[in-house]
């Protein structure tokens, strides 16, 4: 019998760090080491339709119970870990009967209760940390271990349920988690990502997101004979950026539901300078007014220097999942009911970012994000709570049960 903890420890020891600079998919071949293991484990559990596609995406099905015609639902987690910190030689520390105090790690690092106040409520439980030299990878191997454990339970369930699909993706951390998921083949009424922090939360809203690429073209000529001829694109880009709001509508000055414009990357020469600016808000319409502001600034600069060429490209990135979730309200209702059935008081939360679920929802599969017991992601101070992961297993089982009484 392999337990939730055994699974979790087995998965976190496999280095699956994503590589943001790679051109291939998955971005690092080592992600496939975990994908292959999961494929084997799905097979030996007795799941059906076990497949790993050419991109390393693993899918499998807990078949419906006999005579049950309930719609299929899906659970998602990602195998990759963040490129922001090393995931080589992860040496997980299992701390049973946690005493409620600060947790010292190697290299002078400390997980402080003051910085992780959730720890206070977990006294007496089992906390899994790193040894201080790597990240843990609970983001999102907690989600994988939870889904695998719930799938095993569902194979032996004594209640009717429809098909329950599991899907393990690659490269979520670099924004490509959903590139190679075949939603038509998956054929589900809704999905749930197990990639949220803590316990009892349901992420129901994310930012809506566009990226603007602003390119300013000037005129380059040798500086010795530049008088009246040179138009320096770098100087005009500086003016362009100077006109963006700073005291409001910037990441430095906003929180909660406030949106922002954020220039985050630029390249440039006298002849041509480009900047990439991300536009974020919970209201998709607000992105249009941000884009209009960029056009207005371009207009002002061109009025001052007609020889400038200014090009603004707006690229859609993802949308607030609230819009897509409205199409299948049961996706969220059932998540709330599942948590309540387990005696929890569900907290509906918003994320100042996106999830795989926001992209899946936009593509037509309503997919809220559920808690999975992970904390302090992307950091050597990352930790996970075994009890919170156990609760998430029960939430998944309960969701299958609740959906089991529904029809398309
Ligand atoms: Zn994650």
Report on this model:
The structure is a single chain. By secondary structure, this protein is of the alpha+beta class. It folds into 2 domains: 4-206 and 320-403, 3-Layer(aba) Sandwich (Aminopeptidase), CATH 3.40.630.10; 208-318, Alpha-Beta Plaits (2-Layer Sandwich), CATH 3.30.70.360. The chain is built from 10 helices and 17 strands. The chain has helices at residues 4-12, 31-45, 138-155, 183-186, 233-242, 284-304, 321-325, 330-341, 356-362, 386-403; strands spanning 48-52, 58-62, 73-78, 93-95, 103-104, 110-111, 127-129, 164-169, 190-197, 201-206, 208-217, 260-268, 272-281, 309-318, 347-351, 369-375, 383-385. β5 and β6 form a beta hairpin. The longest helix is centred in the C-terminal third of the chain and has 21 residues, at 284-304. It is globular and about 80 Å long. Zinc ion (ZN) binds at residues 78, 139-140, 172, 195.
Task: Give a concise summary.
The chain has helices at 4-12, 31-45, 138-155, 183-186, 233-242, 284-304, 321-325, 330-341, 356-362, 386-403, and strands at 48-52, 58-62, 73-78, 93-95, 103-104, 110-111, 127-129, 164-169, 190-197, 201-206, 208-217, 260-268, 272-281, 309-318, 347-351, 369-375, 383-385.
């Amino acid at each position: 019998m392999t337990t939730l903890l055994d699974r979790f420890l087995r998965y976190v020891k496999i280095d699956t760090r994503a590589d943001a600079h790679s051109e291939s998919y998955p971005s690092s071949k080592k992600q496939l080491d975990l994908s292959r293991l999961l494929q084997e484990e799905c097979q030996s559990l007795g799941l059906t339709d076990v497949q790993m596609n050419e991109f390393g995406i693993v899918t499998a099905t807990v078949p419906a119970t006999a005579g049950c015609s309930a719609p299929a639902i899906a659970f998602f987690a990602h195998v990759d870990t963040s490129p922001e910190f090393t995931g080589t030689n992860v040496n997980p520390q299992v701390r049973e009967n946690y005493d409620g105090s600060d947790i010292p790690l190697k290299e002078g690092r400390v997980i402080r209760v003051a910085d992780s106040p959730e720890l206070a409520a977990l006294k007496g439980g089992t906390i899994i940390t790193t040894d201080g030299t790597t990240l843990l990878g609970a983001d999102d191997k907690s989600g994988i271990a939870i889904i695998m454990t719930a799938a095993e339970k569902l194979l032996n369930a004594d209640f009717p349920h429809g098909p329950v699909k599991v899907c393990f993706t690659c490269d979520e951390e670099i924004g490509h988690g959903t590139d190679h998921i075949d939603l038509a083949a998956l054929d589900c009424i809704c999905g749930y990502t197990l990639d949220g922090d803590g316990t009892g939360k349901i992420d129901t809203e994310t930012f809506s997101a566009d990226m603007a690429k602003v390119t300013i073209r000037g005129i380059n000529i040798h500086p010795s004979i530049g008088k009246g001829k040179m138009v320096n694109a770098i100087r005009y880009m500086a003016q362009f950026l100077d006109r963006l709001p700073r005291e409001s509508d910037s990441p430095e000055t906003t929180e909660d539901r406030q949106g922002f414009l954020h220039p985050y990357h630029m390249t440039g020469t006298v002849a041509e300078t480009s900047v990439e600016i991300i536009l974020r808000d919970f209201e998709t319409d607000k992105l249009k007014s941000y884009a209009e502001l960029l056009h207005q600034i371009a207009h002002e600069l061109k009025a001052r220097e007609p020889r400038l060429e200014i090009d603004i490209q707006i690229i859609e990135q993802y949308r607030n999942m609230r819009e897509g979730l409205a199409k299948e309200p049961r996706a969220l209702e059932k998540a709330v009911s599942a948590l309540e059935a387990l005696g929890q008081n569900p907290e509906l939360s918003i994320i100042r970012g996106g999830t795989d679920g926001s992209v899946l929802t936009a593509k037509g599969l309503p997919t809220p994000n559920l808690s999975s017991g992970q904390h302090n992601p992307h950091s050597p101070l990352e930790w996970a709570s075994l009890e919170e992961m156990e609760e998430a297993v029960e939430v998944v089982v309960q969701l299958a049960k609740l959906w089991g009484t529904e029809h398309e």
